[in-house]
Design brief:
The chain is of the alpha/beta class. The chain has ten helices and ten strands. The structure holds phosphoenolpyruvate (PEP) and manganese (II) ion (MN).
Length: about 290
């Protein structure tokens, strides 16, 4: 898709809604995805999942294969996470998104994940994107930390050209000259992508800022900027997290943040999709 900045129709006229579980992303309301950076054990994932569900998350996250900057740090449970995920999904009834790092994992996790996550480091992995375009499963496409918005949108087209238009963009912070926080949240990109692309856009404030105490403010700003949702890292014992502990929220902090977030959304006449009250959409195009 070619797009000309400032020349688009309104985003609501163009947006392709994305159906996951029993809700739809991109129809004006707000979605919260939450869970740990990495799945570490049944006890840890189950506690995180039940905590975030109670606080209002409608989608679970949790890494099984972790692309860590250092090869000597925790790399994820891999296949050992599958049974944990199945059990926790059954207990909560919530859908699950997880990062795929290799096209060979698609078949392995197809029945476990409800949405494939393409991580920042793989946004340029066109072989992976093309392969995901051939499947009827939604894709969460994170922005490369050094990618232009145009490159991000073109990466999405590698998926859509295969026939899969169920794509959600995720702004997760970019690398700038600033080093006081992990990355810099580019809210410009969020409003730009909302206005100039057909894809719903969510924000990952956790990786964007990398500092636990600053995550809620960025979540509120994202909601005010018109993002379709957030994906947040939450751990039952943040200081013990095996990956990204600096940015992990406790379940209590996540719950407090969600309460405030509802007030921010209300100021913009928007609502949070709640787990207990799934909205009913009859006219949703299903690609599955
Ligand atoms: C993650 O979501 O755990 C992750 C690794 O994110 P990113 O690809 O944005 O770094
Ligand atoms: Mn992480």
């Amino acid at each position: 898709m070619d797009f000309i900045p400032g020349q688009s129709e309104s985003s609501s006229a163009q947006v392709i809604p994305v159906k996951v579980g029993n809700f739809v992303i991109g129809q004006g309301n707000f979605t919260a995805f939450a869970g740990p950076c990495s799945i570490e054990s049944y006890e840890q994932f189950s506690a995180a999942a039940k905590g975030v569900q109670k606080a209002g998350a409608v989608m679970l996250r949790g890494g099984m294969w972790k692309l860590r900057t250092s090869s000597t740090t925790f790399q994820g449970l891999g296949g050992d996470a599958f049974e944990i995920v199945k059990k926790v999904k059954k207990e909560t009834g919530l859908p699950f998104v997880s990062e795929i790092t290799d096209p060979r994992q698609i078949d392995e996790i197809y029945d476990i994940v409800d949405m494939f996550q393409v991580g920042s480091r793989n946004m340029h992995n066109y072989a992976l994107l093309k392969e995901l375009g051939l499947y009827k499963k939604p894709v969460l496409l994170k922005r490369g930390f050094a990618a232009l918005v145009t490159e991000w949108v073109k990466a999405a087209e590698y998926i859509s050209q295969g026939g899969n238009d169920q794509i959600v963009l995720c702004e997760r912070g970019i690398r700038t000259f600033e080093t006081s926080t992990r990355n810099t949240l580019d809210l410009n990109a969020v409003v730009f992508a909302k206005e100039n692309t057909p894809y719903p856009v969510i924000v990952d404030p956790s990786h964007a800022v990398g500092v636990r105490s600053l995550v809620p403010q960025l979540a509120y700003a994202s909601a005010a900027a018109g993002a379709d949702g957030i994906i947040v890292e939450v751990h039952p014992r943040p200081d013990e997290a095996l990956s990204d502990k600096e940015q992990a929220l406790s379940i209590e902090s996540f719950a407090a943040m969600m309460k405030q977030l509802e007030k921010v959304l209300a100021a913009f006449d928007r609502t949070l999709i709640k787990p207990a009250q799934p909205p009913v959409f009859s006219e949703v195009p299903l690609v599955q």
